TrEMBL record:
PANTHER family: UPF0718 PROTEIN YCGR. Belongs to the UPF0718 family. The keyword Transmembrane helix applies. It comes from Ureibacillus massiliensis 4400831 = CIP 108448 = CCUG 49529. It is a multi-pass membrane protein. It is found in: Cell membrane. This is Membrane protein. Keywords: Cell membrane, Membrane, Transmembrane, Transmembrane helix. The chain crosses the membrane at residues 9-29, 49-74, 121-145, 152-174, 219-242, 249-271, 277-295, 307-327. GO terms for cellular component: plasma membrane. Its main location: membrane. It holds the Pfam family ArsP_1. It comes from the Bacteria.
Length: 331
């Protein structure tokens, strides 16, 4: 068992090093005798842009996760989370809506919260609303659509209700926390750190944050590379050919949001560029679906949660978002 885990770690390490070396090739290869394909340069540019965009949020996320691990005890969690499922989900969605976090940075935070005793369904509510309807995202949406509040309000309203419904469905389908069994995943530090000096606890917080960063970053790198590869070799125009009616265009825009793996603070500007191509409903689907689930985020979720849960969550998000966005056109 241990040898299999070592082979998995070695493979992922070699794969990530290979990706990073490939990204640096255009910098070191300036020879006139070697021509680098334009598609490779494009792949390299998109890959690095996704990483540069996501890493600051991941760093913020792992620092918060380290703080939660050291300074927040299970007693604090039990005191804050309502026992009623609906109230717990509602509170998690409201807190997430006020919390400025990217879909990459929020994964380690949710992982640590659930590990500390937050119910899975409450963690899902926080996971979905945090990147989707926080103040920064709403402001960027307002600006991207020409200082028009309609799309920003639609994104906030439909996104919140959809996240609430998804989290409630998760509460009915899953009873355990669905976290992968990893070394130290059930090991609580709350009692030992509580008695230690403040500076030592801060030092431990940074140590946990560093461990969390190296655990999450390798999956971020893999996800960013796959997203960049698909963006480079699958043209947007080919996806647009499938959009003949509103149902199809909505699915196309959801698929585009999944593949592009854009940061939620910037996706509104991309969505706004499709205003002359697709109806408002389809663009709304793009803006709601992408922050909830995308390619790089899915790979990061698979590193934290059991594969079955991630698959069910993917199906729930896709179905609920499609239904709620379609219903919004009737308003």
């Amino acid at each position: 068992m241990q040898s299999r885990q070592k082979r998995s770690v070695n493979f992922s390490t070699v794969f990530i090093l290979g990706i990073l070396l490939m990204a640096l090739v255009p910098i070191f290869l300036k020879s006139t005798t070697l021509t680098i394909p334009n598609s490779f340069n494009q792949l390299n540019t998109i890959f690095l842009s996704i990483l540069i965009e996501a890493i600051p949020f991941v760093l913020i996320g792992v620092l918060i996760a380290g703080f939660i691990q050291i300074f927040i005890t299970e007693d604090h969690i039990r005191a804050c989370i309502p026992k009623n499922k609906f109230l717990a989900v509602l509170m998690s969605c409201v807190v997430g809506a006020a919390f400025p976090a990217c879909e990459c940075g929020i994964v380690p935070i949710v992982r640590r919260l659930i590990g500390k005793g937050v119910p899975l369904y409450a963690g899902v509510g926080f996971l979905l609303t945090g990147p989707l309807i926080n103040p920064i995202v709403i402001l960027s949406t307002y600006m991207a659509f020409g200082n028009d509040m309609e799309m920003a309000m639609l994104r906030m309203g439909v996104g919140f209700v959809a996240a609430l419904a998804i989290a409630l469905l998760v509460s009915l389908l899953f009873r355990s926390n669905q976290l992968k069994k990893t070394k130290g995943s059930h090991h609580s530090h709350s009692h030992t750190h509580k008695k230690q000096p403040l500076m030592l606890r801060i030092s431990d917080m940074f140590k946990h944050s560093i461990d969390e960063f190296f655990h999450m970053s390798k999956y971020l790198i893999i996800g960013a590379f796959v997203a960049a590869f698909l963006q480079t070799y699958i043209s947007t125009e080919s996806l647009l050919l499938f959009g003949d009616n509103q149902m199809q265009t909505t699915l196309v825009m959801m698929g585009l949001a999944f593949v592009l793996s854009l940061c939620s603070e910037a996706d509104a500007f991309i969505g706004a560029s499709f205003r002359n191509v697709f109806p408002t409903t389809s663009i709304l689907a793009f803006l709601v679906y992408g922050p909830m689930i995308d390619l790089k985020n899915t790979i990061m979720l698979l590193s934290v949660f059991k594969a079955r849960f991630v698959f069910v969550l993917f199906v729930l998000i896709t179905t609920v978002v499609f239904i709620f966005v379609s219903l919004s056109s009737l308003l």
